[in-house]
């Protein structure tokens, strides 16, 4: 997606060879026009996939996910993160380990908002090691629903998440695919 790639080139800050800061349009301040275009792009890619629900993880996935849900005319559910959750039978709960933050958290969704037979489009802002996406996919499958695909705003292709998800059989659609981060700049996949 050209507008996204241009925005990353203009405003993205390379913090290290593995971390890109995009807090001026995605992770802190949000560019609604760009989020709207992102939503339209995901919705077009999944127009014929029978999606009944969009799922993301709080907090930075919500902006692109709500625009995608708007364009697909389906509800959005965001999984909530908690440090430690006592077992509750009204929730689906999965463990998600963050390699970036080196912390494990539990993500939870109310059973009310995910039903057997649903086709779920998972959306997230970043894809690094794929832990968040795999955690959401496990919740979808535990509910007896299926994953229509995984839509990612910024994929860091040099980390293993995208290839692991595809090897596991998931459809992954990333709007920007970064192959390298360095002080000289940001390299995108063709
Ligand atoms: P994974 O799910 O793909 O395995 O990624 P990881 O655990 O490493 O990601 C942990 C958090 O860091 C996530 O945000 C993710 O979006 C974010 N993240 C990963 N790589 C980058 C990066 O290069 N730049 C930025 N800005 N963020 C990155 P989170 O903890 O869920 O926070 P939130 O922003 O959604 O609240
Ligand atoms: Na984030
Ligand atoms: Na995220």
From TrEMBL:
Keywords: Cytoplasm, Glycosyltransferase, Purine salvage, Transferase. Xanthine binds at residues 20, 27, 156. It holds the Pfam family Pribosyltran. One of its GO terms (cellular component) is cytoplasm. It catalyses: XMP + diphosphate = xanthine + 5-phospho-alpha-D-ribose 1-diphosphate. InterPro entries: PRTase-like, PRTase_dom, Pur/Pyrimidine_PRTase, Xanthine_PRibTrfase. 5-phospho-alpha-D-ribose 1-diphosphate binds at residues 128-132. GO terms for molecular function: xanthine phosphoribosyltransferase activity. One of its GO terms (biological process) is purine ribonucleoside salvage. Pathway: Purine metabolism; XMP biosynthesis via salvage pathway; XMP from xanthine: step 1/1. Residues 50-158 form the Phosphoribosyltransferase domain. The keyword Protein biosynthesis does not apply. It comes from the Bacteria. It is found in: Cytoplasm. Its EC number is 2.4.2.22. It is an enzyme of class 2 (transferase). Belongs to the purine/pyrimidine phosphoribosyltransferase family. Xpt subfamily. Homodimer. Converts the preformed base xanthine, a product of nucleic acid breakdown, to xanthosine 5'-monophosphate (XMP), so it can be reused for RNA or DNA synthesis. This is Xanthine phosphoribosyltransferase. It comes from Paenibacillus protaetiae.
